Structures are given as C-alpha cells and as structure tokens.
What we know:
By secondary structure, this protein is an alpha+beta fold. The chain has five helices and seven strands, in the order αααβαββαββββ.
Amino acid sequence: MFKRMRDWFRNLGNAPGDTTAATAFGATRLTLKEPAKKLVKSDRTAEDAVRYKEEARIKLDEAKVLGLLDSWKIENDVPILFVGPAWNNAEPKAKKTFLQHANTLFLDGQEGFIAFDIYDARTQRKIARWGNFEPYVD
C-alpha cells in the first residue's frame, strides 16, 4: 500500500497526457516548458569546432533531403527545430542521431548540450524537446 502511495505522489507531477517515454526520461509538462539550458564542456580547439560544425551542417542538409528536417531558427539565443514529414516514420535511433547533429550545430561545434524545442513543421505544434542528450516526448 505504501509503495502505491509513493508511486502516486511521484507521478503527481506528471500531467495525465504525459507519455511513458517522457516519464521514462524524467520529463513532465513543466520541464517541457522550462527555458532552454546550455551546457558546454568542450576541449575542442577552434579548428576542431569548425570542422564538427560543418560536419553537422552537412548531416542536417542530408536530413532535409530525406524529409526529416524542415528548418530551424534561433530566437533569443534559443534554437527551435522544425521537423518534416519523415519524422513520424523514422527510427528512434535515427531521430536521436539527427538531434545530436543539430545539437552540435547549435553549439557551434563544441561538445555539450543545449535544450531546444522540436516542432512539427506542418502543424506548428511542439512535439518534443531535446535536452540532456535525450528527446523528451510531448
């Protein structure tokens, strides 16, 4: 009985619409609304950073051709990624790799992470957030 009560209180912070994937990563509706966080821990040289950024840009151009990426923009130092129609049918591993390349591009080739929102380009609806190297599903 105490275990059920503990689980109930733990899940109280999750909205009824939270998906199990979001809960598994510790994301709640509140964390999806938090401002973007940036954490750069990199010992890359400036030349390496430029090389990694260009590699990430090439990978994102490939994702655009495949329909995984539609576009991106940066508002108030916060990146926003718009995904294309292939997003829904892509494998989770492919999505994560794609988001890691976007993360590298947004950090100008440095190591680390930046939290950013992911929107469906057709509906303009927020569908997920990338943060702490994992996508949080909305």
